[in-house]
Write a structure and sequence with these properties.
15% of the residues lie in helices and 33% in strands. The protein is of the alpha+beta class. It folds into two domains: 131 residues, SEA domain (Alpha-Beta Plaits), CATH 3.30.70; 243 residues, Trypsin-like serine proteases (Thrombin, subunit H, Beta Barrel), CATH 2.40.10. The chain has a six-stranded antiparallel beta barrel. Helix 1 packs across helix 2. The chain is globular, with a radius of gyration of 23 Å. Bound molecules: arginine. The site of arginine has 14 residues, from strand 16.
Length: 392
């Protein structure tokens, strides 16, 4: 008999020593930072740079402290530029036995105080500005799910798809299935409460929004969180049958309620650079092989960005890949997107493990063939176009 099936009992001390997970929200002020509104933008280089430094400082401090066993995660949620300083809003998770809760909380505060007081780095932080409040699990998840490109489930493993594997629940919360008359037709990515991006060629069959539905989750049928389409915005320079400008925005009739397994991906800034060799992941419910079966569960495949010159070589695509496109996969073949993956995401995790949409599945010769990697629309090239159509 086990009257607490979800409790993690600590060895030798059953009864009053179970670990409970506690969530905290906090803030502190980073001093002497020249005023720059870019800190406020969640995908700016300034925001990522400062957040990364602060997250590393916090993680190092907790991991080398006496409560390292209680530490689960710490993140910078937002940065608020304020005169010559920046206010950092942070989010922490710890586990501890209920009886130790107050003690753990005091330790967290002390460790943060010491870390922030120590001027070893180039940053000076005002330790008196530190505040820390316990929040509920629901509030904590809501905070994370409202940010782009994050995963709420810390247990999730990091890491028409050919050569892929089953996705875990909540692993790719921005992945959508675009269905025609209830049947999966294309992939798409959630970029805002009502907006998705996908491929323009997904609307060749019929341009009528009424024929389309959108669903999320890992199982493609029955649809999970079904939504309806209000408007389809196809790139004005897209020409059916041609490969260029194969991008479209979908506006849903209603907002998607963000939750652990359904929320938006980050869009890179137009100037962001993704280098050849960088590890990225393509996901979708497309065919497992060229002309092969379709899976019921979302598939993921790790691929690499391929240099455009290599991709345009004679043996490969012989000049067909434009600057607004990006190749990803392997020149030796095998792992690739496939039919039915079109419109879906190619994503990149930055050093803070925040996921960015770098490509939109567009075309390729068959799937996983030698010298014929997948070709994607390059999201940075369309970043301003997306902003002009969505305000995002
Ligand atoms: N055009 C295909 C579709 O409509 C996807 C092509 C991607 N092919 C590839 N080998 N990566 O689903």
């Amino acid at each position: 008999m086990d009257d607490c099936p979800h409790c993690v009992w600590s060895a030798g001390n059953p009864g009053n020593n179970e670990n409970t997970v506690y969530y905290y929200q906090g803030r502190f002020t980073v001093l002497d930072i020249p005023h720059n509104e870019n800190y406020a933008r969640e995908t700016s280089p300034e925001n990522n740079y400062l957040s990364k430094i602060l997250e590393t400082k916090m993680a190092d401090a907790f991991q080398s402290s006496s409560i390292y066993r209680q530490y689960i995660n710490s993140q910078v949620i937002t940065l608020d530029p304020d005169n010559d300083s920046v206010i950092a809003h942070i989010w922490l998770i710890f586990k501890s036995p209920r009886s130790m809760k107050e003690n753990t909380r005091r330790r967290i505060e002390t460790i943060l105080h010491q870390t922030l007081n120590n001027h070893s780095g180039s940053l000076s932080i005002d330790p008196t500005s530190l505040s820390l409040t316990e929040i509920s699990k629901t509030t904590a998840e809501k905070i994370i799910n409202n940010r782009c490109g994050r995963r709420a489930r810390m247990s999730a493993t990091h890491d028409r798809v050919r050569g892929g594997s089953n996705a875990q629940e909540g692993e790719w919360p921005w992945q959508a299935s675009l269905k025609i008359n209830g049947r999966h037709y294309c992939g798409a990515s959630l970029i805002g409460k009502r907006h998705l991006v996908t491929a323009a060629h997904c609307f060749q069959k019929t341009p009528n929004p009424k024929n389309y539905t959108v669903s999320f989750g890992t199982l493609v049928t029955p649809p999970y969180m079904q939504h309806y389409v209000q408007q389809i915005i196809i790139h004005e320079n897209y020409i059916p049958g041609e490969h260029h400008d194969d991008i479209a925005v979908v506006l849903l009739t209603e907002e998607v309620p963000f939750q652990n397994d359904v929320h938006r991906v980050c869009l890179p800034e137009a100037t962001q650079i993704f280098l050849p060799g960088e590890g990225v992941v393509v996901t979708g419910w497309g065919a497992l092989f060229y002309n092969g079966d379709y899976p019921l569960l979302l598939q993921k495949a790790p691929v690499k960005i391929i240099d455009t010159n290599t991709c345009n070589s004679r043996e490969a695509y012989n000049g067909m890949v434009q600057d607004t496109m990006l190749c990803a996969g392997y020149m030796e073949g095998n792992i690739d997107a496939c039919q039915g993956d079109s419109g879906g995401p190619l994503v990149y995790p930055n050093s803070r493990n925040i996921w960015y949409l770098v490509g939109i599945v567009s075309w390729g010769e068959e799937c996983g063939k030698i010298n014929k990697p997948g070709v994607y629309m390059r999201v940075t090239a369309y970043r301003n176009w997306i902003a002009s159509k969505t305000g995002i």
